[in-house]
Amino acid sequence: MIQSVVSEFFMQEPQNLKEKRAILKRILTRAKQKFNVSIAETDFQDLWQRTEISFAVVSSSHIQAEKEAREVLAFLDSFPEWERAETTMEKL
């Protein structure tokens, strides 16, 4: 089963796109290392205080996939560099 998640985040610290990309690279790399997910920035690449992150979790059951997706979201929320605004979860 596949759980797809799309989240929008706002970032206060970056003053330019280079700083934003450095923060994103660090967070997304750590998420990939900690969880077995495919994760990437999927929108707002040209804005330095806003981003959309999408990831997918594959598991043998919908319940496990959703649980792991919530763990990934909690991990992403633990970073003080950004604040999550909106999240959409979908079972595929």
Automatic annotation (TrEMBL):
SUPFAM superfamilies: Hypothetical protein TT1725. This is DUF503 domain-containing protein. Gene3D superfamilies: TT1725-like. It comes from Listeria seeligeri.
